[in-house]
Amino acid sequence: MSSRARGFAAAGAVSAAAFVTACAAGGEQQSILDPAGSHAEAIHGLWSWMLGIGAAVWVIVVVAMVVALARRRGDEGDPTAPDAPHREAGVHGRPVRIVAVAGALVPAVIIAVVLAMSTLVQRQIADADVADSPMIEVVGHQYWWEVNYPERGVVTANEIHIPAGERVRLDVSSQDVIHSFWVPELGGKIDMLPGASNSIWLEASEPGVYWGQCAEYCGEQHALMRIVVVAHEPDEFEGWVEAQLRTPPSIVEGEESPGDELIARGREVFLSSSCVYCHAVAGSAALGEVGPDLTHLASRQTLAAGTLPNDRANLSAWLLDPQAIKPGNLMPGTEFDDPADLDALLAYLQSLE
Ligand code: HEC
Ligand SMILES: [Cu+2]
């Protein structure tokens, strides 16, 4: 093998390995091949038919081409001979029929069939029986998701909780640029536009955790704009809603567990830092709307839109230097003159369940 060929082979092997690893990334997979509810199943069914039809066309064309190449010209006589049948007739007869049928009629029929199939599936999705008003409103921000339950009064971020086995209507829009909401195992994509609202429904037939992703390039950290959908058994879902509506005791001065001076100090650090200009904590003086609502931060699985698992070490790294973790995101790093302030702030944030 030449060194160039070896280079290509190595690059091929590395990308194949990366692809396989990415596809097999455990519980965080996002795959259209693994639909988990009726919306995604309808799309998957259509996609499978299209793949099958496309594959059949490809095989037939390749076989026809190989046959044509293998057939020796002489088999049908020498076309330049004075008595060659097509010479006087020009190009019509059999070749014209082949071009007309294989080149125009068959593709037109196939495209018409595929068009009809996709129109039917679109209809089926659009006509599905879903509520008149959204259960959830999702607003895209560079590079995170604001999540509101208008009828329940719940506000959260980067994580959507739904009851399993139910068609859940979501209305989506954007605060800044165009984003696109996509949870491949639960449904199709929908654009999130500034100043306009689009609607989609999702369904998870079984409880579980499903990952999604912004699907419209929206800036430097588009790739780290991920979302988690947690589908619960219906009564578990109600439990989640209730927990989200409770004010964590540590938010209210004097209500943190007795003797928890660290949390009380953390609350002071938080309320006297720039955090409050960008983040809200319900029931406190923090009313910012630039970043995710932190009222129930500790109940969430991830930090910074699926970028990091939500634990103390990651939270600390994020507060100190969010730009190192997610370069270009809209949160500046914070310096703590006294390391005990950081400790206290972490204790406070981790108490927000
Ligand atoms: C200038 C506005 C701004 C300031 C000041 C700010 N943040 Fe943020 N913060 C953001 C934005 C925007 C994000 C979302 C980043 C992303 O995921 O792209 C964020 C994300 C976070 C997250 C992750 C939340 C989640 O659910 O993923 C935490 C925790 C956080 N900030 C805490 C703080 C704390 C504590 C302070 C003060 C020390 C602070 N922030 C100061 C804007 C700000
Ligand atoms: Cu994006």
From TrEMBL:
EC number: 7.1.1.9
GO BP of this protein: ATP synthesis coupled electron transport
InterPro entries: CcO_II (IPR045187), CcO_II-like_C (IPR002429), Copper_CuA (IPR001505), Cupredoxin (IPR008972), CuRO_CcO_Caa3_II (IPR034236), Cyt_c-like_dom (IPR009056), Cyt_c-like_dom_sf (IPR036909), Cyt_c_oxidase_su2 (IPR014222)
EC category name: translocase
Residues that span the membrane, as ranges: 48-70, 96-117
One function term, GO molecular function aspect: heme binding
Any one cellular-component term (Gene Ontology): membrane
Keywords: Copper, Electron transport, Heme, Iron, Membrane, Metal-binding, Respiratory chain, Signal, Translocase, Transmembrane, Transmembrane helix, Transport
Alphabetical list of CDD domains matching this protein: CuRO_CcO_Caa3_II (cd04213)
Keyword Membrane attached: yes
Annotated membrane topology: Multi-pass membrane protein
Annotated Cytochrome c domain residues: 261-353
Domain Cytochrome oxidase subunit II copper A binding, first and last residues per copy: 131-243
Location within or outside the cell: Membrane
Family per similarity comment: Belongs to the cytochrome c oxidase subunit 2 family.
Function: Subunits I and II form the functional core of the enzyme complex. Electrons originating in cytochrome c are transferred via heme a and Cu(A) to the binuclear center formed by heme a3 and Cu(B).
Name the record gives this protein: cytochrome-c oxidase
Native organism: Microbacterium album
